[in-house]
């Protein structure tokens, strides 16, 4: 690989964390804002989020869930009602205490002591408690159930160590909140949302994920059960890419979500919540990025095809632009992956080669350069972002192809790239999960072997709880490991717990994680 | 009108304010949240916002503006830099002072004194100052201009008196922020955004508006000039429905947005900002609502056609549902107002007549009831929300029409309703603007005449500034009047200023306003 003049300074295999930051900056996706822990999401990063949002919103609506909008501020009393919930969140919330600023007499501003709130308000870290209040108003009878709501919103968790997209004090997400008559229906919804997340991650973002239940110690604060989708990054670490929670009647009791059941008796509703966030963009980068920048899966690429005419500031440019515009219109009339092809004719001044590398770093799936000679031959120079280099000569892997034939096959190429990115990531993921490990010593050995980017290990356990689970968690922590989840499609247990030696009841994945 | 059994308890002409609240509740659009000044936007209200958002976003993108996302928190220092800006906003901002809660030892929670922020953060009331910081990083050369950004976001202004959609402490909006080389280009963008808002209000929301510049005293804090679109509500009051600001170099100087111009000299950029918000939904209600609830313009109706089968919980229901489903599929394949028809087959239990009034109150443009006899005749019972009553007999104005003919003409009907709502509102608006008023006495008389819902008055003025303008503003205030704007399409001045008697320079609209 060292023969190629890669478009980034940092190699993935040299310093994954520095590489990650460089991709974000080189692809112009986001930057630090200067406000503690908050980032600015720039057009290319936000465009990917918008594409994802549109696709996910369609999935959410198709399930009969309706979008609403709830207040950003949550009174303290809401947190006081659900003790385990506040324990989980109280350490990282932004608290509004005043509603006015005044001059400090020295040219600066201070909160006006006269405008202190009687009850401080919390900037939502998640909305179970405030949506619970609304559900308590909306639900009276079993006829009002299921109640299926979702909101797209910003939330704030005061993180001490932040990393763009992966962990920021403010982030964007959707949070689904539903109420049901009983456990079974709520569990069905919890798993429906989980399956929706799996499908979206795999089909839209080309992120292979493993669905499963989180262990007790990793549950959402206040939940009865938490399920997740876990994706493997190229450094072998796990990224929790979405969660779905069965909340039992915990939040219903705290908020008073009661209904008359079919027999006229009063019952508490069973609720669920589920969410995915801008963190997924970090997952896209760390799964599909390479030493030349990002590779955006076509389904969420703001532009799937970028056309770069070699303009010379000469009268001949006009014919070249017309040639490119015909191609643009032809491409925009094609349908790829269920939608019209998104194509940009990049007419900005500047050399085509310079612009090419901009789009390589941004990861546009197809880049098409057109010079006067290409036009004469009725051709274009096509570059697939997923096959950037000619492995024989170390040069960009241009395919000089007839323009009209390219227009015809563009949709098929985009579908192939989408599938290819997924297959590549799945293969790497599968190759990096070690099975058959039967002792904690083997685990220790694996993670102490000096491998720079070790993957995941599947082991069997007896599902200890309470203090016994705490001991396991502590033991894993010495290797910076965590239990990711209990994969739903794992084989049944057939051995002993690697922690306690008791007969195992299930298999778990352990890994380092973001 | 009193013969009809209207679907609301309150008549518009009896108590407009109570009527407004009743529409919101009867159409199930929003409700108070229990959190001071914040509302919950429910699915029907949020669905209208989503429709609007999609259409506006298309307009924004078509102008080459790119969506980004900026932090919700703004450091105090940003406000300190732009004095007139903070004067305008400092009185109504939510201030975050702590980042953690702890137990108060009595079962409650308090902000942790150990977790006090060194510099308090403001929850954005608008984002000029924080986006200015980003622009200062992004702009170096004239080649980086124009810089055209937009964000869809929530903002918070601590309002003392709130009213749902019209004035809430938290609201949703889009805010466009652009930077340019010079005044002319920035002014062009300011007026482009204004024209975009006019087109969206009139074409998408069927709200006729008057575009014009606000007087000096109504400028956005820190702006050189502010333009608005003003809509007339059914109670004759004005609603400022969108604003566009030319900010000169004020914010560029505060944030340091400098660039090298074409001659190599350093210049400050000229910036603009422009926004519309969920307030527009209040405008839709107060323009198109009637004594039976809301009437949603088809372009932004979450459902444009609602089909209500008369289900009897009998085996015959199946054939009826199949008959309705055929119609639903037929309608969904039609294109109205540029998009596939949005149609709901409402299979909820309950009598069709009860459900009919739900949808009347919500304002679905076309309601189609289907009973077994209609089906036998191949017909449906069609109700147009804009022609709800048979004026002869005071009954709902059903049109018993062949099903397939209805499917064919549904798109044309929706287009007719969209146009009809606009024409009706424009006619009322035009009839309620009084022109030719030449003295303040006539103004006083007009607004003291006892008319319950007086409209607007167009007068001529000499465009006083400073203290002279203050005196005019005070004089108008005694009648609760404000200057709305200087209509761009008004006739040139040809008389004297009604305030000072000097030769007039332009015409202004004065009105009571939300």
Automatic annotation (TrEMBL), chains A, B:
Its EC number is 6.1.1.15. InterPro entries: aa-tRNA-synt_IIb, aa-tRNA-synth_II, aa-tRNA-synth_II/BPL/LPL, Anticodon-bd, Anticodon-bd_dom_sf, Pro-tRNA-ligase_IIa_arc-type, Pro-tRNA_ligase_II_C, Pro-tRNA_synth_II. It catalyses: tRNA(Pro) + L-proline + ATP = L-prolyl-tRNA(Pro) + AMP + diphosphate. One of its GO terms (biological process) is prolyl-tRNA aminoacylation. It is found in: Cytoplasm. SUPFAM superfamilies: C-terminal domain of ProRS, Class II aaRS ABD-related, Class II aaRS and biotin synthetases. Coiled coil: none annotated. Residues 45-297 form the Aminoacyl-transfer RNA synthetases class-II family profile domain. SMART domains: ProRS-C_1. It is an enzyme of class 6 (ligase). One of its GO terms (molecular function) is ATP binding. It holds the Pfam family tRNA-synt_2b. NCBIfam families: proS_fam_I (TIGR00408). Homodimer. Belongs to the class-II aminoacyl-tRNA synthetase family. ProS type 3 subfamily. PANTHER family: BIFUNCTIONAL GLUTAMATE_PROLINE--TRNA LIGASE, PROLYL-TRNA SYNTHETASE. This is Proline--tRNA ligase.
């Amino acid at each position: 690989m060292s023969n190629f003049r890669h478009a980034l300074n940092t190699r993935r295999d040299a310093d994954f964390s520095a590489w990650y930051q460089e991709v974000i900056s080189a692809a112009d996706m986001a930057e630090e804002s200067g406000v503690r822990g908050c980032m600015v999401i720039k057009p290319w990063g936000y465009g990917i989020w918008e594409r994802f949002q549109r696709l996910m919103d369609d999935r959410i609506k198709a399930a009969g869930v309706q979008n609403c909008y709830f207040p950003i501020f949550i009174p303290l009393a809401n947190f006081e009602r659900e003790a385990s919930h506040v324990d989980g969140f109280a350490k990282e919330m932004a608290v509004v205490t005043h509603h006015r600023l005044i001059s400090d007499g020295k040219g600066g501003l201070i909160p006006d002591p006269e405008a202190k709130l009687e009850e401080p308000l919390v900037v939502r870290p998640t909305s179970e408690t405030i949506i619970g209040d609304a559900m308590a108003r909306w639900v009276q009878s079993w006829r009002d159930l299921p109640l299926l709501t979702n909101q797209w919103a910003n939330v704030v968790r005061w993180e001490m160590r932040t990393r763009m997209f992966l962990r920021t004090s403010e982030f964007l997400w959707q949070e689904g909140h539903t109420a049901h008559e009983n456990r079974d229906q709520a569990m069905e919804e919890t798993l429906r949302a989980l399956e929706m997340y799996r499908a979206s991650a795999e089909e839209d973002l080309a992120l292979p994920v493993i669905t499963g239940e989180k262990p007790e110690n990793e549950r959402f604060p206040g939940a009865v059960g938490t399920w997740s989708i876990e994706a493997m990054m190229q450094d072998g670490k796990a990224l929790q890419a979405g969660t779905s929670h069965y909340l039992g009647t915990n939040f219903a009791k705290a908020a008073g979500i009661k209904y008359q059941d079919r027999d006229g008796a009063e019952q508490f509703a069973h609720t669920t919540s589920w969410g995915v966030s801008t963190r997924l963009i970090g997952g896209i980068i760390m799964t599909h990025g390479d030493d030349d920048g990002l590779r955006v899966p076509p389904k969420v690429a703001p532009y799937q095809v970028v056309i770069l005419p070699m303009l010379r500031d000469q009268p001949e440019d006009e014919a070249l632009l017309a040639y490119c515009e015909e191609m643009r219109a032809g491409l925009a009339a094609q349908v790829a992956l269920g939608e019209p092809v998104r194509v940009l004719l990049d007419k900005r001044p500047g050399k085509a080669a310079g612009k090419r590398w901009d789009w390589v770093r941004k990861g546009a799936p197809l880049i098409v350069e057109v010079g006067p000679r290409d036009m004469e031959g009725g051709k274009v120079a096509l570059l697939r972002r997923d096959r950037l280099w000619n492995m024989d000569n170390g040069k960009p892997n241009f395919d000089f192809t007839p323009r009209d034939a390219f227009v015809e096959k563009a949709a098929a190429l985009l579908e192939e790239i989408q599938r290819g990115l997924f297959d590549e990531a799945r293969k790497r993921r599968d190759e990096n999960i070690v099975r058959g490990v039967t002792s904690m010593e083997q685990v220790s050995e694996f993670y102490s072997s000096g491998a720079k980017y070790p993957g995941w290990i599947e082991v069997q356990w007896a599902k200890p709880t309470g203090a016994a689970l705490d001991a396991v968690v502590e033991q894993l922590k010495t290797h910076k490991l965590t239990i990711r989840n209990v994969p739903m499609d794992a084989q049944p247990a057939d051995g002993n717990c690697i922690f306690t030696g008791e007969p195992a009841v299930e298999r778990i994945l352990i890994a380092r994680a973001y």
